[in-house]
Amino acid sequence: MVGQNKGKKRGASSHEAPAEKAPLFPKSKGIDVPSDPEYSSDDDEEVEEGDFDEMLKEMANDQGIDSDDANDYIAGDSLDEEEEEEGDDESDIHSSDIEGASSEDGDDESEDGEDPEESDNEEDSSLERVASRSTDGQHTAVDSQDEAEGSGEEELDEVNMDKLTIRDFVGDIQGWKEYRKTLPQIDAGYASDSSTEDPANTIGNVPIEWYEDYPHIGYDIDGKRILKPATADELDKFLANMDDPDVFRTARDEVNQQDVKLSEEEIDIIRRIQGGNIPDADYNPYEETVEWFTSKTMQMPLSGAPLAKRGFIPSKWEHKRVMKIVRAIRQGRITRSGAPSQDTKPRFYDVWEKAEENDDDNTHQKRMARRARMPAPRLALPSHDESYHPPAEYLPSEAERQSWLDEDPDHRKKNYLPQDFGSLRSVPGYERFVQERFQRCLDLYLAPRMLKRTTQLNAEELMPKLPDPRDLRPFPSVESLVYLGHTGRVRSISVDPTGLWLLSGSDDGTVRLWEIVSGRCAKIWDLKETVHMVAWCPSADVCVFAAAAGSRTVIVIPSELCDEHKRLLSEELVRAGFNSAAQAEEGEEEDDSLPVSWDMPTSAEQATGIHVSVTMHKTVKSVMWHRRGDYLATLTAEEGGSSVLIHQVSKHKSQRPFRKLKGAVQSIMFHPTKPWFLVATQRYVRIYNLMQQALIKTLQPGVKWISSIDVHPQGDNVIVGSYDKKLSWFDLDLSVKPYRSIRYHRQAIRQVQYSRKFPLFATTSDDGTIQVYHGMVYQDLNQNPLIVPLKILRGHEIRNSLGVLDCVFHPIQPWLISSGADGTIRLSVHNTEQ
How does pLDDT run across 529-577, given as a tens digit for each residue? Predict the structure, then answer.
């Protein structure tokens, strides 16, 4: 087929060209055609047949050869390549191989019935004609000196060999291939016109660990393996590093397996990266801001174009739109929002409209506006037994099921029985759904409902706005002294009017006199019985105190504490009752039914300062002095009117103010400013006027058992403590009910006490604590008293469920003295460091 094609091509060319035959390009002729670096000998081996044919066509066109003639070269080249592949030696091609290839080519052509010499001559003539046409008017690379010498040279020198082109191998294509293999390789270095430098190692972006078990490190451009360089041992590396001054600026390139010396610029970049700086030293991160859009107004306009016509001519479209809206308003199709049209009729009518007489339209509208929507009550949430798969304990037994079926439907607690279904798909439709919905609608329609208004209150809003306790100082806050000496419970304590001395009575049967400031025990009186109460006389003219021990009350004058004048006045007050003349004058009026006897103490007791002993039939629980210091009230453990007695010390006279008393008396007290006497029973506090001998009022604290009472120094307020842990504050001018009830203690309240100088009061309890309050009473009757909790004092131990038994304020300082069941007395003072 190749021969036939060649015959056709020769027949076509014979009609166009003359019959002359002449060689086109003698092989001895030197033609200066520079070789193209893109077509190297190595590339020819890898190019396929079709690509190489195209390359030959392009080169023939560049040299001016006709495309039809170039096809002959391509066909011959393909035959030569087929014959070349059949050979054994592919690396070296000799002239004998070229001759063999040409002879074989001639044999192929002879098969078509033509002479091979004639075909070669015709082919040469056609190429000559093509070459002559393509070189007319163009510059050729033929050396003028070589033309003058002629074509007699058979071999070219080395200089001319480098300048040969395809024109020099017109009839010898195989020679052209061999010639290309002898050309030197092109080094793509800096002298090359290539803009990029190919790396020596072409493994690409491949982890270097993949080549750890192989002797090579990659492949070169020809596909050959790049062997790993020989590596020295650690000793050789150490010695080489010792001699190399640039060892500290050398880095290892693992990809190319070579050591790279870092330049000064690279070292500077590394140091800047380690320091957290920008790698580029010339980069300025704080460059001045470039105002791409300046805030300054330009003096000239951006454009000189004239204004648009719509800028100063009214819009016709807007005019039409406005007129359309105006017509709709005039026709009544558009009205104000919220204003109904006049011809509208209500869709629904209120049957209770104007139900009341003299009810006009405005009043009815206001009433309707006040009506609030009443939401329907919510249904109860389903329980566990309404589940389609309830727990086993919710399923009824057969007896329960039969009992439910026999029961009247109106008396059943539930109108259904719990059932268990295996899955939700097995649950049938509820058969009573329509009936229950209907009953629900009837309930909402017929059952009357009332909207319950609830007030949303915050807990913080309910708390009173109280001042800061730091603004209410001074008050006792820290424990200062502990008075030790009693071996039993200290039931009662009392401070003398001067504020220097303290009395304490205990279950050990002794009365002790303490110096308040130092805590020193000055004197001890042994009364042989439990001392329930001690009380100083409030008069500042005398120095006398009373102590209730057992069934008698002794009056003692501590002569060591007073001067001579005060001692004489005290003895005169106490001993005046022993004057026989006074007893004779008043003997007829003496009430012999009173269980009281005024006795002279023994000589031993007189030596200790006891001057009078008042003996009674029952145990004396409480002793209270009148503010003038001449009257003394005692409370005994018996019930009835004889439990409360009032004694006149100067006359040694006793009287019973009450014939009958309702309930057991718990505490008694004289009013500080008025001739009133307060008696606290178990549930009530009664106030009597001693001058009028009448009951004034009865206070109702609302507690179960009253324990103690105290009256404010101004006389208008009373505090009541109870065993049910409640404290009640009464304003006598306001009501007989408590103005304020406080319940802060966890156990029973034993004693309540007002301060005579500061707006303070305190409560003691069996929980072992003392709570101090600020209680300010204002002169303005329109202003209520201010009660603020201040401090909780601790320190007393609880013994046999008893805590703090008594407390008293200092008459001058903001101090509080307390006694407890642990046998100690503690002094709490104001902390000046706070």
Answer: 999 999 999 998 899 999 999 999 999 999 888 888 988 999 888 888 8
- The kind and range of the H/E element at 51 are helix 49-63
Q: In this structure, what are the phi and psi dihedrals at residue 510, rounded to the nearest 5 degrees? A: -120, 155
- Per-residue CA distances from 536 to 245, 492, 690 (Å): 106, 11, 23
Distances (CA, A) of 477 to 742, 831, 834: 20, 6, 10
Q: How far apart are CA 281 and CA 272, in angstroms?
A: 8
Residue 195 has pLDDT above 70, yes or no: no
User: What is the structure's pLDDT at 688?
Assistant: 94
Find the distance separating the first CA and the last CA of the chain, reported in whole Å: 123
pLDDT at 373: 66
Q: Give the DSSP letter of residue 135.
A: T
DSSP single-letter state for residue 293: S
- Ramachandran region, residue 550 (left: φ > 0; alpha: ψ -120 to 50; beta: rest): left
Q: Which residues contact 672 (CB under 8 A, 6 or more apart)?
A: 627, 711, 712, 713, 714, 715
CA-only gyration radius of the chain, Å: 66
Closest listed residue to residue 691, CA positions, set 671, 711, 709, 706: 671
Provide long-range contacts, Cβ within 8 A and 24+ apart, for 329-336.
none
Q: How far apart are CA 360 and CA 355, in angstroms?
A: 10
Q: Please report which helix (H) or strand (E) contains residue 654, including its range.
A: strand 653-655
* pLDDT tens column, 376-424: 888 888 889 899 999 999 999 999 999 999 999 888 888 888 999 989 9
Cα gap 754→745, rounded to integer Å: 18
Instruction: For residues 684-704, give the mean pLDDT.
Output: 93
Whole-number percent of the chain with pLDDT over 90: 37
* Of 786, 787, 722, 711, the residue nearest 756 (C-alpha): 711
Sheet with 769-776: strands ordered across: 749-754, 760-765, 769-776, 786-794
Rounded Cα gap, residues 59 and 192, in angstroms: 22
Residue carrying the six token digits 């913080």: 460
pTM above 0.70, yes or no: no
Structure tokens at 284: 């300025």
Looking up tokens 């046409």 gives 133
Report the interhelical angle of 49-63 vs 67-86 (nearest 10°).
140
Among the listed residues 716, 589, 727, 607, the one whose alpha carbon sits nearest the alpha carbon of residue 654:
589
Q: What is the mean pLDDT of residues 350-374?
A: 58
Bridge partner list, 667: 680
Residues 497 and 691: their CA atoms lie apart, in Å, by 27
**Contact, 612 vs 577, CB < 8 A?**
yes
Task: Summarize pLDDT for 710-757 with one digit per residue, the tens.
Answer: 999 999 999 999 999 999 999 998 899 999 999 999 999 999 999 999
* Structure confidence at residue 351 (pLDDT): 55
Q: Which amino acid is at 437?
A: R
What is the pLDDT at residue 642? 82
Beta-carbon count within 10 A of 438 CB: 11
Of 616, 587, 612, residue with least CA distance to 601: 612
